[in-house]
Amino acid sequence: MYALIASLVMWLTLTLSAQTPVSENADTLKLPAVLVEASRFDVTPSQTPVRLSGLDARQLNLHAAQTVGSALQNLPAMNVRSYGPALAQTVSMYGFSGSQLSVLWGDVPLNHAMLGLADLSLYPSLMIDKVDVNAQQGSAEYGAHAIGGIITLEHERAPQARQSLQYQRSNLDASTYQARIQQPIGRWYIDAGAVYQDAPNAFSYLDITQNPAEHKRRTNADKSLASAVGIIAYTSRSYTSENRIWLTDVRSGIPGSIVSLTPEARQNDRMVRFTTRHTWLLAKHVTMTTSAFYARHQLDFLDPRAGIESLSLSESTGLRSDVRMALTPDLQIRTAMGGSHSAVDASTYSAAARQHYYAQLNAVLFTRLGSYPLIIHPSIRSDYYTDFDAALTASLGLVMVLEPDKHRLFVNINRNYAPPTFNDLYWPELGNPDLIPETSHRLNLGSDIVLNDHRLSIELFANRTENGIQWLPSRSDGQFRPDNIREVTSIGSTVDYAVQHNITRLISFQINASYTYLNARYTRARFPGDAAVEQQLVYQPENRIQLGTEWVRKHSRIDLSWRYTGARSAVEDGSIVLEPFAITDITLSHAFQQQSGDISVALSVQNLFGRNYQEIRFYPMPGRIAVVTLQFNRKP
Fold this sequence. Notes:
It contains 5 helices and 37 strands. It has a 22-stranded antiparallel β-barrel. The protein has a 5-stranded mixed β-sheet with strand order 1-6-7-4-5. A two-stranded antiparallel sheet has the order 2-3. The protein is mainly beta.
């Protein structure tokens, strides 16, 4: 049905483009005369049929976030779940699970091939300049695992030479060192950086399982991280290329839950990510981009006391080529084809390599509905896996501009899918090789209003997931096995408000506030007497609130944030509920201007009031954390 609709819209798009006169006003797409970069389409954020959000480099380093996952906690609709310092961080949106969300580094997927999800604790925020979050556009645009949204980690090109050194120290005895060089050299550009972190993370927590509650020391939660990124890029009038490599080595303790301690368990992650991307200007308004990637993740879990030695190596390679054409100033079309090869070599099982091939067609049409500019985004995509049948996805997005740069309406409807992971299919004696992909149907609509210094965004969403994969105990032997038995419906809304104002030439302030409501529940019994039906999904809060403000006076800054997470079910039948919690963070910073460069000093305090809370049951989070940051930026 969706494929038919998308095909009809594609045909309609081509027909309308031939009949729609080229507009000369500001609403018409301005085509670039010189190739600058290979974006998906030449559109502004306000011309996309979604509510886009993200973080820049300053926001990533704010509150001493240290990991991408920690920084994302301050964005609307983001549900970040952490097992504690040094431990896994997963993120989800709109009621989807972490394995249903795709995390990308440029074109490289960061989702683990064997587990299906991305652990954001492995990626230090100091290595990233920008994080883009697209919660609505799904598989027809971004492929598998985009069923629950997309998070893209990116680097930004510095306009001039820049060198920086940074040192952080926390009251948990954690030390972080960073160095980075960004150097344009004619048409070439070089970006190289490295981060080393040594974090013992031995903190006190209140053990509420004891009666009376006792203060205890969390041990075996240490983390040692070394990470380096290198980028070499070349740009000419008709050609650009970029080569990236990211090396990471993480060694951490796995303390277990406070009711099942694992004082000797360790986990080692060693990762290599490489991508090369080349773009040619074939004609005045035709570009071709070819990219390839290689990803390698060695994941080892060792627990001598339990006699566990789980070793795994996941490798993926991929190739993609797309052609983007501006047929008229009001119509762009992009065709893409690609494939990937994934393999897992684990000590627990062996599995056949997975091949994946896909082809997609996307378009953007600028037209009008009466006197209002209307932007149409149709997409269709076909994916084929060697493990199971082909999957067809499609999407249709509309943007109506009621007042340029001030008021717009958008709607997006799409069909998405997520394939089973290697663990789901091939876990020894328990995997299910007959699993089929999960599917979802999504509807998002919203409005953005800008009035002077004020901005208001309102979004409504509804999602239905079918054939969801879940591990449940077998009725025959009690062993957990996966099956396509999960059916979930989630509805909700997000309201996001921001105001920014300059009081004087030197003093300014900004205030942000957001509220997210989520109703995500099982809508079909998975077995007779299923008590989870109509219960809120585990660890999915119905209510989330975020407040933030920043005050800037010349080179001094105060940043204050507060986030509230409502009550969450810890078990599927809703009989155990985690208490809501509210966390306050503050950062005070000042930059000293020197002739040779800038020296910045910052004091960040996370969990300012030392709240005792858990994001996941029996995994306590630390109390108050103070971090001092020193940074030197050398002037060119």
